[in-house]
From TrEMBL:
Keyword Translocase annotated: yes
Lineage, opening ranks: Bacteria, Bacillati, Bacillota, Clostridia, Eubacteriales
Keywords from the UniProt entry: ATP-binding, Cell membrane, Hydrolase, Membrane, Nucleotide-binding, Translocase, Transport
SUPFAM superfamilies: P-loop containing nucleoside triphosphate hydrolases
Main location: membrane
Self-association and partners: Forms a stable energy-coupling factor (ECF) transporter complex composed of 2 membrane-embedded substrate-binding proteins (S component), 2 ATP-binding proteins (A component) and 2 transmembrane proteins (T component).
Function: ATP-binding (A) component of a common energy-coupling factor (ECF) ABC-transporter complex.
Alphabetical list of CDD domains matching this protein: ABC_cobalt_CbiO_domain1
Name this protein carries in UniProt: Energy-coupling factor transporter ATP-binding protein EcfA2
Organism expressing this protein natively: Ruminococcus turbiniformis
UniProt cross-references to Pfam families, sorted A to Z: ABC_tran
Domain of life, per lineage: Bacteria
Gene3D superfamilies reported in the protein's UniProt record: P-loop containing nucleotide triphosphate hydrolases
Domain called ABC transporter: residue spans: 3-244
Length: 272
């Protein structure tokens, strides 16, 4: 069970004055159950990349393999793929619209054709997974705090029981407390469900503390791919592409606290 890109390139508006190559020959494979961060500066191609993973955007060239099958094959079941690869967009709370939270989270499973009872069961499970308090289930989504809205919106995707959960900048616009709470919750969810989780962020600080693997994007290309330790060895190059030093320094500090052999100037990590 895996999801893979093979030599994927993508060009927006080809042949026009607005032509823009957003992805250049990107390849990688993510195994079922991995917790992966995709990181890069704004415009590096992260959003374009993840929209390929559930078929929303079709590669200009290259292949996407889901469980070994090319999703561009004739007759491939894209609807099923979208059910299995759940994508939570940036600011997903803008898509909340039902009278109360539970009804909103039921929307996806209902759309999949599940009976009411099952929809509600899935919705309750999903809300529990994101740590959404039960006392607000019957509240209007518009009455909630920013962090709770975001949880409800993430639950809306989880209620469809995807095997892969992709979160595009899930901490955008939240205060530091809300940010940590969401990321802690996502980590917990990954541990409890064994689901593949792909966390997209422009912040090394957000990603590195949680994930087991980091894919660094730069100008549409995959720049690095490895464990946080492997990726941080390229500290100086990361700094050059705007993955700011203070954030990396913070992560170094965090790693040092966890017992990794981080050098005193906090810019390199030695071998264990
Ligand atoms: P990121 O998510 O890392 O910020 P994006 O995937 O949104 O990056 O964008 C990658 C590149 O593609 C950027 O240069 C961006 O300006 C361009 N781009 C994104 N969406 C469009 C679009 N709809 N039309 C043309 N260019 C786009």
């Amino acid at each position: 069970m895996s999801i893979a890109l093979e030599h994927v390139s993508y060009v927006y508006s080809p042949g026009t004055a607005y032509e823009k190559q957003a992805l250049k020959d990107v390849s990688f494979e993510i195994e079922q159950g991995q917790f992966v961060g995709i990181i890069g500066h704004t415009g590096s191609g992260k959003s374009t990349l993840i929209q390929h993973l559930n078929g929303l955007v079709k590669a200009t060239s290259g292949k996407i393999l889901y469980e070994g099958q090319n999703i561009y094959d004739a007759g491939y079941d894209m609807r099923k793929l979208r059910g299995q690869v759940g994508l939570v967009f940036q600011y997903p709370e803008y898509q909340l619209f039902e009278v109360d939270v539970l009804t909103d989270v039921c929307f996806g499973p209902k759309n999949q054709g599940l009976p009411q009872e099952e929809c509600e069961k899935n919705a309750r499970e999903a809300l529990e997974l994101v740590g959404f308090p039960e006392k607000y289930y019957r509240h209007s989504p518009f009455e909630l705090s920013g962090g709770q809205k975001r949880r409800a919106a993430i639950a809306g995707v989880l209620a469809m029981k995807p095997k892969v959960l992709i979160l595009d900048e899930p901490t955008a616009g939240l205060d530091p407390k809300g940010r940590d709470e969401i990321l802690d919750q996502v980590q917990k969810l990954h541990r409890e469900t064994g689901m593949t989780v792909i966390l997209v962020s422009h912040s090394m600080e957000d990603v590195a503390r949680y994930v087991e693997r980091i894919i660094v994007m730069n100008h549409g290309e995959k720049m690095y791919d490895g464990t946080p330790r492997e990726v941080f060895r390229h500290y100086r190059e990361l700094e050059k592409v705007g993955l700011a030093a203070p954030q990396v320094t913070y992560v170094m500090h965090d790693l040092r606290e966890k017992g990794f052999p981080v050098s005193p100037d906090a810019t390199t990590i030695g071998e264990a």
